Amino acid sequence: MTPSEAAKAEDGRQEAAEAEDGRQETSLERLDRNTIELLNELRVASTGIQFMFAFLLVVPFDSAFKDISSFEKTVYFVTLLCVAISAVLLMAPSVHFRILFRQGEKRYLVSLANRVAITGMVFLGFGLTGILILLSDFVVGGVAPIAVGVAAFCGIATLWFAIPLRRREENAD
User: Fold this and answer.
1) Rounded CA separation 11/31 (Å)
2) CA 137 from chain center: how many Å?
């Protein structure tokens, strides 16, 4: 399915769902509202990414970094990549909106931005988990990084993805 076809299918699902909620808005008004809501959500995520990325960029310049284990260096590098990928993905919708501004592509932009934002949040979840593993290994060591990593991964996966996906399935029935 092409992005354009996916956008049309998503719009059809949204029209059916939103007709039930009593909103009195045109298709373009709904797309405008969805755009504003999405961009506001991305602003929240971007603040967290800025702090995480800044932390990760400073870490190698600390004198203690040269003494960390190869495991910690690997976790650090994978975490840095996950946060960088997340930042790129979560900034992409704004860039797309600017490039396709006034081109009549809002339906496509909202659909694509939604998918890109969800993918960006997946990488952000991995980045958060990696930072917690790295810090717990550095500070406590032992089995703490494993316990913290599993707890962080399960918590993020549940709160960010499993709960809303379960609710989405319940509403689809």
Assistant:
1) 9
2) 25
Contact yes or no for 120/86 (Cβ under 8 A): yes
User: What radius of gyration do the chain's Cα atoms show?
Assistant: 20
Q: Tokens standing for 164?
A: 């809303």
Q: Which two tokens stand for residue 114?
A: 């939604």
Q: How is 75-96 classified by DSSP, letter by letter?
A: HHHHHHHHHHHHHHHHHHHHHH
Task: Indicate if the pLDDT at residue 14 is higher than 80.
Answer: no
pTM, entire model: 0.79
Q: What is the DSSP string of 13-68?
A: HHHHHHHHTT----HHHHHHHHHHHHHHHHHHHHHHHHHHHHHHHHGGGSGGGGGS
The 10 Å CB-count burial string (b at 16+, else e) for 73-111 is eebbeebbebbbbbbebbebbeebbeeeeeeebbbbbbb
Higher pLDDT, 146 or 34: 146
